[in-house]
Amino acid sequence: MRELTTIAELRVVLDGERRAGRQVGLVPTMGFLHAGHASLMQGAAAECALVVSTIFVNPLQFGPGEDLESYPRDLDGDRATAVAAGVDILFVPPLAEMYPEPMATSVSVSGVSAGMEGASRPTHFDGVATVVAKLFNLAGPCRAYFGEKDFQQLAVVRRMVRDLSFPVEIVGCPTVREPDGLAMSSRNAYLDVDQRVAAPVLHRALRLGADLIEAGAADPDTVREAMRALVGAEPLARLDYVEVADPDRLDALSTFDHHRGRSVRLLAAARFGTPRLLDNVGVVVPVGE
Ligand code: PAF
Questions:
Q1: Residue pair 244/266 in contact by the 8 Å Cβ criterion
Q2: What range does the domain containing 205 cover?
Q3: Considering 116, 138, 173, which residue would you say is the last residue of a domain?
């Protein structure tokens, strides 16, 4: 694995690789890599001749008072994870390389960015879309790999790629979970022992919602109410939202009528003390009578 830190080097190396006919697969990350990231890298290695992964804690996507300064970092551990997962080039640019001057340009994806994470973190998705657009321009990937764990982010990136005609296929990869159901996340490192025990309630609530839908729940509100009640019964959890949404537009559903025989997405976010975790699952609405 080669490690690069400048845009100029990355461009020279990847131009050469593309001229030699090798397709680039990109796995953008903010580091502190875990098995979820490794699965994205392995997916890229299985499908692309050259796997580029990036580690950059992007300040644009953190709001005031969020965890930019304390975001966990472990570059040595990340190098080992990336090598083992088949990464060929690890791009680790310093802040001044990515943003040598304050950005005057921002990519904003309306609609799909608005609710849930967008409502709780109003500048977050502009920051994500801007850095992902920049990374696509730097790496020129044929395919880029994102986890379904950040399902709204995946939808935002897909929409940006469609709207701006980026020549890249977005590959969404299944969430990797701990044995008790907790979705893997770099932010799980913030949980203390009691919060860690409580945190899988988020996944249990989503599973409950999915079971209710499969059993023929009458409407999305019934499902939201049941999920809210389950998270609400966990004293260490402070619920931010639960949602039943269209899997592409991510708008909240008021009825299942237009989704019979199709998938819907259940999404949730909650704080366990200071740490804020999110999770989601997909479920197909039964066709009914
Ligand atoms: O999912 C993440 O780790 C980040 O939001 C991403 C896509 C690397 C952009 O900074």
A1: yes
A2: 186-280
A3: 173
Say how many Å lie between the CA of residue 144 and the centre of ligand 1: 12
Name the pTM for this structure.
0.97
Structure tokens at 167: 């020549």
Q: Are 195 and 187 in contact (CB under 8 A)?
A: no
Assigned token pair, 85: 């997962």
From the CB of 131, is ligand 1 less than 6 Å away? yes
The model's confidence at residue 288, banded by pLDDT at 50, 70 and 90, is confident
Do residues 152 and 238 share a domain? no
Is 34 annotated in the active site? no
pLDDT, one tens digit per residue, over 69-90 is 999 999 999 999 999 999 999 9
Distance of alpha carbon 79 from alpha carbon 114, whole angstroms: 35
- Asked if residue 158 belongs to a domain, the reply is yes
Cα maximum dimension of the chain:
61
54 close to ligand 1 (CB < 6 Angstrom) = no
Tell whether the model's pLDDT for residue 206 goes beyond 80: yes
**129: CA distance to ligand 1 center in Å?**
9
Q: Same domain for 16 and 104?
A: yes
Whether residue 285 lies inside any domain: the answer is: no
